[in-house]
Amino acid sequence: MKSKLFNNFGYKLLSVVLAVVLWIVVMNISDSAVTEQINDIPVLQLNGEVFDDLDKIYEVSNGDTVDIIVKGRRSVVSKLTADDFIATADLSTMSVTGAVQIFVTPKSSSVKDAITITVVDNTMSLILESKVTAQFPIKIKTNGETREGYAVGESYASPNIITVEGPESSVAKITDVEVVVDVTNKTESFTENAEVVLYDAYHEVISNSKISLSDTNVDVTVNIYPTKSVPITIEPTGKPAEGFSVAEVIYQPQTVELVGPEDELESMESIVIDDISVSGITEDLQTTINITKYLPEGVFAVGTDNEIVVTVSVEQLEKKSFKPLINDIELEGKNDAYKYLVTLSDDFSVEVIGLSGDMEGLTLGSLGLYVDCSELTLGDNEDVVLLHSELDGIEFKITGTISISVSGSKK
Q1: What is the spatial distance between Cα 74 and Cα 76, in angstroms, rounded to a whole number?
Q2: How far apart are CA 264 and CA 113, in angstroms?
Q3: Cross-strand partners of 399
Q4: Would you call 100 exposed, middle or buried from its count of C-beta atoms within 10 A (0-12, 13-18, 19+)?
Q5: How confident is the model over 170-203, as pLDDT tens digits?
Q6: Interior angle at CA 158, CA 301 and CA 180, nearest 5
Q7: Residue 411's pLDDT is what?
Q8: What is the pTM of this model?
Q9: What confidence category does residue 22 fall into, taking pLDDT thresholds of 50, 70 and 90?
């Protein structure tokens, strides 16, 4: 048995050696050295607090992620991902140009000895800005529609002013600070917590991790009240220039939908705007009136109906002159036992002044001229008052005098 074991021993040993060599060759071929690129490894920023003492804020303009090239055995490299590496940048080592070197190491020490790492771009670029603080009022916006017959009254946030701190260029872009609450089908006032959102001039949301807010959420109270439609009355004050008169007052809207406490709305029958002055004007007056100041405290116009566009039209007055005769003047209140003798002065005339539309068709007979004789006494009555019909928009100017002699004899 022993002799058989050692028969051809040299050949047997050679075959074992050849088998080992073949295994080594095969292993080297199947697990050869390879090179792989691994992308988008997040870079951990270290010691960023060094800028706080300088009252500066940094932003990464380039290099917040890094790519690497890894070389090693296929069996090791093929299993690696970005999660197997840690990339760091020590911001306290920033150069005068704002560059910080990036270092990448494997998280596993066993992998560290099995591979080599080349960083594709090992530089992070920083931009330093001054840290600024600003305050903004909080605007409350509503979504949805309340139930019919109700509307949103006053709304307020607590706190109603927010303090923003961040890079100067980013804070400068902020134009509005808003919160949004939903009022769909609401019929009662309510309070809810809402998120604060920053907007730029284009109403785009500003999102920047370097911006901090004194409050990220605030409590918003929205008062929901019933509504009421109320008419508007415009009463101009003063008089236009001599020879002119107000012809028409046009305004829109003529009614406004109001919202407020029910007891306040019940007492409101109309909104009277009586402080539009037309004193001394010779041309049409156009103006826009905000009705807010004419409303009781706690009452508001629904939506954007708080502005009234008013046009006051003025026209030059026209004149007509009449030369009445005695027979054109009625004697009213006469005593049948008396005789009345009427005398008109030579310059006696009646001038009427008014707008063209009111003067159209006006005749001496339509003036309704008369004298009230009930208070006249026996004898001569000088400077008797001439009366006339009340005509809308017509002004009378009487020149000369009327004398009436009353005697006791019958007609």
Answers
A1: 5
A2: 83
A3: 349
A4: buried
A5: 999 999 999 999 999 999 999 999 999 999 999 9
A6: 60
A7: 45
A8: 0.55
A9: low
